Amino acid sequence: MTDAGIDESQADELAELFRALADPARIRVLSLVANATAGELCACDLTGPLDRAQPTVSHHLAILVDAGLLTREKRGRWAWYRLVPQRLDQIRALLAVPQR
């Protein structure tokens, strides 16, 4: 018998996060935003590096925002995105596996 491991609601939460990250373009978006010099990127700055049209980039960004991995701030005509470090910490904590 084991007492370790995550419960069903935590597993459901992780599964939702993994679905949000189950696309190479979304992983790249997350990486680009995480490594942005200013700590944030405009949606308009992502179309070139991703080689995707703006509506497609916006779709991927919306999924990452809905998953709580990015925040969105509207400034005039453009939206700016930042990583949510606390969310990544949450994922790390849920996945923590003790060393044997």
Mean pLDDT, nearest integer? 88
Rg (CA only): 16 Å
CATH architecture: Orthogonal Bundle
Per DSSP E runs of 2 or more residues, the count of β-strands stands at 3
At CATH level 3, the topology is Arc Repressor Mutant, subunit A
* Derived structural class: alpha+beta
Please give the largest β-sheet: 3 strands, antiparallel
Helix content: 40-55%
Contiguous low-pLDDT stretches (5 residues minimum) are: none
Q: What is the straight-line distance between the termini?
A: 17 Å
Side by side, the strands of the main sheet go: 1-3-2
Task: Report the portion of residues in β strands.
Answer: 5-15%
Order of helices and strands: HHEHHEEH
- How many domains is the backbone divided into? 1
Count the helices. How many? Answer: 5
Please name the fourth-level CATH homologous superfamily. Winged helix-like DNA-binding domain superfamily/Winged helix DNA-binding domain
Shape: elongated
- In CATH, what is the class? Mainly Alpha
List keywords for this structure.
100 residues; alpha+beta; Arc Repressor Mutant, subunit A; 3-stranded antiparallel sheet; 5 helices; 52% helix; 14% strand; elongated
Report on the structure:
By secondary structure, this protein is α+β, with helices and mostly antiparallel strands. It has a single domain, classed as Winged helix-like DNA-binding domain superfamily/Winged helix DNA-binding domain (Arc Repressor Mutant, subunit A, Orthogonal Bundle), CATH 1.10.10. 52% of the residues lie in helices and 14% in strands. It has 5 helices and 3 strands. It has helices spanning 8-20, 24-34, 47-50, 54-66, 85-95; strands at residues 41-42, 70-75, 78-83. Strands 1-3-2 form a 3-stranded antiparallel β-sheet. Strand 2 and strand 3 form a beta hairpin. Helix 2 (24-34) crosses helix 4. The longest helix is centred in the first third of the chain and has 13 residues, at 8-20. The chain is elongated and about 50 Å long. It starts with 7 loop residues before the first helix and ends in a 5-residue tail after the last helix.
